[in-house]
Amino acid sequence: DAKTTQPPSMDCAEGRAANLPCNHSTISGNEYVYWYRQIHSQGPQYIIHGLKNNETNEMASLIITEDRKSSTLILPHATLRDTAVYYCIVRVAHDNFNKFYFGSGTKLNVKP
Amino acid sequence: ETGVTQSPTHLIKTRGQQVTLRCSSQSGHNTVSWYQQALGQGPQFIFQYYREEENGRGNFPPRFSGLQFPNYSSELNVNALELDDSALYLCASSGLAGGPRGYEQYFGPGTRLTVT
Question: Which residues of chain A have a CB within 8 Å of the CB of B102?
């Protein structure tokens, strides 16, 4: 029951912006998009989330298309420590709980 | 560091055996979710507990069960282990939504279970 589609891997040069795409074409109006990343053998770590407006925090920016069918996570100045698997997630509100639907993730390789 | 801890770190079991994995939530969090992450895949939702009651479940059979205790720590129990149960098991705690990070889930480092 995957709700997001991501490319399996991407490369980025250190210091350059990394743009990670995600398709979520079946998203409903009240379902949020979250991004987490997972560094090898650790638990996933929150990056950013949004509903329909673009969002920015100290880690990244999230651009959501007007029809909400896709989004892009932007790391403005990638460093070697940003090498990780990045997950695009849809949060769905069920009757009495919220469920996170993880995609398969994009392995970002930041190269010197 | 998220403040969520899990034990043990690694575990090896034999097919047919039973296993209990433990999770200690971040202070103040009353909700815990458990996920199964197979090698090379994203985490898959198993179930969620809120105030000691299961309030949501993913597509996992009944041999996957859990408990949440009054201090909001949690256990995941798996009976009749199968080879395909080999995975990283993650727990994530969360509190009330509405903060600056929304309904953020704080993940522990996981327990690596190998079934032989």
Answer: 32, 34, 49, 91
Pairing of strands B10-13, B111-115: parallel
In DSSP notation, A69-93 reads SEEEEEESS--GGG-EEEEEEEEEE
Please tell me the distance from the alpha carbon of residue B57 to that of residue B59, in angstroms, as a whole number: 7
**Angstrom distance (rounded) from CA A64 to CA A72:** 7
Q: Which amino acid is at B84?
A: D
Residue pLDDT tens, chain B, 116 long: 678 999 999 999 999 999 999 999 887 788 899 999 999 899 999 999 988 899 899 999 999 999 999 988 999 999 999 999 999 999 999 876 555 566 788 999 999 999 99
Q: For residue A41, list chain B residues with Cβ-Cβ distance below 8 A.
A: 109-110
